[in-house]
Amino acid sequence: MPQARKIINDPVYGFITIDHPLLLQIISHPYYQRLRNIHQMAFAHLVYPGAVHSRLHHSLGAYHLMCMALAELKSKGTDITPDEELGAKLAILLHDAGHGPFSHALEQELIKGAHHESISLMIMQKLNDELDGQLETAISIFTDQYPKKFLHQLVSSQLDVDRMDYLNRDSFFTGVAEGVIGYDRIIKMLAVKDGNLVVEEKAIYSIEKFLLSRRIMYWQVYLHKTVVAAEKMLIRVIRRAKELISKGEKLHAATASFDKFLHLSGDKIAVAGLLDDFCRMDDHDIMATVKNWCDHPDKILSVLSRAIIQRKIMHIRLQAQPIDEAFRKEKSKEIAALTGLETGDLSYFVFGGEATNRLYNLDNESISILYKDETLRDISEVDNALINIKISEPVKKYYFCWLRV
Amino acid sequence: MPQARKIINDPVYGFITIDHPLLLQIISHPYYQRLRNIHQMAFAHLVYPGAVHSRLHHSLGAYHLMCMALAELKSKGTDITPDEELGAKLAILLHDAGHGPFSHALEQELIKGAHHESISLMIMQKLNDELDGQLETAISIFTDQYPKKFLHQLVSSQLDVDRMDYLNRDSFFTGVAEGVIGYDRIIKMLAVKDGNLVVEEKAIYSIEKFLLSRRIMYWQVYLHKTVVAAEKMLIRVIRRAKELISKGEKLHAATASFDKFLHLSGDKIAVAGLLDDFCRMDDHDIMATVKNWCDHPDKILSVLSRAIIQRKIMHIRLQAQPIDEAFRKEKSKEIAALTGLETGDLSYFVFGGEATNRLYNLDNESISILYKDETLRDISEVDNALINIKISEPVKKYYFCWLRV
Amino acid sequence: MPQARKIINDPVYGFITIDHPLLLQIISHPYYQRLRNIHQMAFAHLVYPGAVHSRLHHSLGAYHLMCMALAELKSKGTDITPDEELGAKLAILLHDAGHGPFSHALEQELIKGAHHESISLMIMQKLNDELDGQLETAISIFTDQYPKKFLHQLVSSQLDVDRMDYLNRDSFFTGVAEGVIGYDRIIKMLAVKDGNLVVEEKAIYSIEKFLLSRRIMYWQVYLHKTVVAAEKMLIRVIRRAKELISKGEKLHAATASFDKFLHLSGDKIAVAGLLDDFCRMDDHDIMATVKNWCDHPDKILSVLSRAIIQRKIMHIRLQAQPIDEAFRKEKSKEIAALTGLETGDLSYFVFGGEATNRLYNLDNESISILYKDETLRDISEVDNALINIKISEPVKKYYFCWLRV
Amino acid sequence: MPQARKIINDPVYGFITIDHPLLLQIISHPYYQRLRNIHQMAFAHLVYPGAVHSRLHHSLGAYHLMCMALAELKSKGTDITPDEELGAKLAILLHDAGHGPFSHALEQELIKGAHHESISLMIMQKLNDELDGQLETAISIFTDQYPKKFLHQLVSSQLDVDRMDYLNRDSFFTGVAEGVIGYDRIIKMLAVKDGNLVVEEKAIYSIEKFLLSRRIMYWQVYLHKTVVAAEKMLIRVIRRAKELISKGEKLHAATASFDKFLHLSGDKIAVAGLLDDFCRMDDHDIMATVKNWCDHPDKILSVLSRAIIQRKIMHIRLQAQPIDEAFRKEKSKEIAALTGLETGDLSYFVFGGEATNRLYNLDNESISILYKDETLRDISEVDNALINIKISEPVKKYYFCWLRV
Lengths: 405, 405, 405, 405
Description:
Radius of gyration of chain A: 23 Å
Number of strands of chain A: 9
Order of helices and strands of chain A: EEHHHHHHHHHHEEHHHHHHEHEEEHE
Oligomer: homotetramer
Helix content of chain A: 40-55%
CATH class of the largest domain in chain A: Mainly Alpha
Distance between the termini of chain A: 60 Å
């Protein structure tokens, strides 16, 4: 039997305790260890040098908050069996296991049509097979088929421990103190009412603060213009490589696993057959490859690669209003003159689009506040509510990038 | 002219301000940006998942403390010219520029005979040439040839801003709160006496705490047994690869730059001619390569590589006394039986040695305390001194590793 | 000459440096030292046991932020003379010197018609006389007569260092993490445009967060129902004592100074003649007196006093809507039956009113955001502004208290 | 039934949860609420303005750590019944209930011969009577008569939660970061072996750090020279008042309760009969009284009182060596000449003595380290032990004070 108890130092929460052999087994599995080498925030560290924490660290953090939340609910009399407790902990531990290198940034570029959550589910199912069905409850909770809805809501909802951890952790590591949330207060105020997760009245201001922190993190960090530009550049490096390959050029990635994915074609790839390969890729594969391409004869590939490695990030405009057409044309003409490229190829060096909250969804699920008289009201309907249509609107900005020369 | 002022968020100090065009130029140079991809603490993150901060981050932090220290000394009347101020800032910014991938862990494995400080100096000299001699003062301070000794002492001595930052930053990111030091108090108490850096009497307990924190970080973190084992394994991967190459096997690194270094031979390599290649390597090159080698036909290479990537770190004993000979023999026999390997090759899977404070030197330089009556005493001679021969003894432990099967 | 430099440990900011003899003289003056014994947050510690920090501590904190702000503005090229710098520091150091015991809670009860700011001014003028006019500039800045308007705005405006410190400090000591503000970011973004204090565009989210923190602190802390009830009770203790005195009863305070104020009568008291006595009073005088009154033969006085000392705070309803008339009547009848008191006297044990932000004004002054193109926009007019009419509305709640029996 | 669950915000630990009706009853008792008005660190706030936290706050903090420690031990399989758990929590909650105003500073001055712990016990016994024996287990644990020794050791030993809280809390509020301890790590490493409290091997460095923090806090904070001088002055104010009273002078305290104690005489006072009066006194009684005495006709009384109130603390020398006799004589002569006082009375203005760790005992109890092989070793006997005779020696300094003129 493996050591049954492990304490992990965490700068955010102090200590994280793993106290079940199955949890230890999952954590030490290569599929999970891989997350160690995927930055939680992709290229955000180009602007916030501290933001180099990993997906593994985030999963452990979310797991820690899950432990706290379950303990709190149990102490308030909510019935949670040991099997359900373990299931919820496994579900959160593995919720991000399906992320590929650079997480959201490359999500649709490496494997078209496969959302990371569906890959997380595949991984859980594979582990479930390996472990003789010990993940059944976890899978049921993860896919929201488990009868006690609040367990899934802890994993995924407006107030889940995933968001609580990433907002808090991302704030911590970026040093953007404005994003820090009162996770302990919110967790202390969680309750279950009619099978659903709710928060007690006292937590109203903490919830408002939580929603505002999310807003701040989006605008100031997740959609920071340099970060957006860098991610768009990386997408174009991969796209260019695939284009060259499709034209019959011999082009290789630095690692065998990444090379396989680079040479895949087709719109919707059956990841299932490639799961093992997928689970060998992490940020290292991409970065080592981009480094090699710095000297590639294809100018577009090498210029973009070098710009990423040397942090010569493209110029970018990021604003609430659509980009002025005249400005776009002027910049296109400039870059075309400089590079001699024409439409098509030129679009690698001058391009625009909409930056939305692709990273994390701000959807319409509600947060229910439980009043002392046992009634429920949505957070947007409480007295003097701060949260109104304004801040719940989807976050969208227009960006326009052009080569730095 | 580049933007003349930049503020960087830092979770440790809040904000770091860069306010001179030359500093901004250095920071945006590819030689400096490379440090972004070298972990400050090599494999420590295998045990402390938060410890993924970079050498770039540490250099910026040390630079920040240098700014604070210089401002403090100036406010106390120490004469420091603008040129000296800039020089000291540049020197600390670049003091670690010569670190290769995995810093200390691979220092003697990749380029025999070249200490990272001598490479830092080469880099400064090259940048000095590129920038028309603007780094003259910085180089003079870095090499301790500048007349005002305290400037060099701020860069490198028992109480330099380098140590203050790394102890503090490493404590912060590992979550080992015991290592946090009162850097602000120490800096507020710095003074210059007869040209040398001293600390005022009031700081005695902070200094003692600083020395103790260093001790704690060594034993608990830098020489953590899992970290030691992982680093020894990585050294053996590189060593095995070089051995195979020297035997004529075709073996390649994942990236062009690392491949060049892998194929170098000779005891003392003239890095000078390879500086540009050296400055293209970072942790990504190593990790991508080790990932590729997981499937290499050479068993020794692939077993070690897979063990690193999947975090199946070798068993290790790490203790104050030499390892019992009988125990060593027993383990050797066990592993020999299991692997069928003989001496020589067996030493890749069973080995021992002494772990000393190779990471950072605990040398004999003194820390001078300045009393109110203007006399000086060494920290070890103050009333009720805590610091005595005991904790200033070199840190040494014996380790012994064997394959996890 | 007094020691010219003093470093004070502060849990909120680390260290506060006092580096001018005049500042040290002011700080060691009994008028200033008195603030040591006045709680910054009156009775908030009944709910938040950590909230026992003093007015002296807050003044020192605001002074520290002033030092940071002035240094920042100077580094950006704003012209500030040494005399102006000292003046601004003195002004903020003394801005709250006119607070009496329990600050806002008793402000209109002890000395009718005298706002604490007018008393702060009297104190500054008196010190100016004592110190041969060395506070001239400070007084001019404090009273907004100094030509460089931004200096007064640093002392008193929507974004002054007073608010920045109290929000931050109150959050820190209460443990209400949601109230913590990014003071360092805001200060780094301060600038002067056309003689007025503005903030750079980058600080928008920090400013929004600052305004939200204020909102949270009002609702969750400053207007916490138990705190409101306790303060209303203390007001009634003083009021009852004065009433008894006016009826000719012999009733004394525990201290000579407080006794004098208790026996004053008239609507608008000329504090000027009593300044020295006023400056001898602090929270101790009130609390010792209330303790003595626990055994006073007058039931109303002793019941209220005991309730305060033993923390048997009255029942309270605090809500956004006016209190239901039927409920008020019912409770009045209940308490009347229990105590045998009739209207008039009964109003000591059953009473209601409106709790507004009397503590700190949320007025209409604007916060100007400076864009990169040098234009100014109000914080409420920026893209995707969070701050709209909703959260800038005056904070008002209806309260209703009745005796706990 | 009173509300069965209460959450208290604490800046040090985040939240403290009280979840048993009996605990809530004890906390709301006037005997406990009184601790709200006793500074944990007496006059330390004269030097560290943040150090104004109360005994009540410390007790709540120690209670919180007790909850954590008990949960940890239970999760490791230690048998602890609900009754024992409640007993241990009650014992720690009330461990300091017997402290009088200004805690240790006045301990032997107000009531000769009665240590605060014996008064805490009296209070527990009285509450036990009031509450029909519900505190039996708590009393048995507090007085170390309970068979499971580790429960008492959690309340009082080298590693008790009392020390852990006060070191941590005092560090936090003073802002002396060097004193912060890794309480969470230590608590996670607690275990019970043969009925005694021990710590696991992994905690060695945290324990060393804990002991060093204590050392730092003693020298830098608890025995800070200004703090020592202020406390000695307050002792002399009380002593002078008693002397005047014993000479037949009419002299009164500001409050009735304090007045009673001032007029007591005899060496060993039977506090038992005065317990209720004792439990009405707090710092307010003393401070209001000292304020009144600022204008007393007795010069010695008024000079000392004013010096305290206005923070004109006496000059003091505090050093490791005995004070030089010649220096003492010279100062005595100086002050005698200035004041016209003779021996006896002069000793109010010029005096010396030894400052030892009267506040908290550094006794010889050991800390046992539990090794993986289940053997125990004392912390002073581990490999490379830092803790040796040197830092476990009693802390003693010589002080000498003389009037500031």
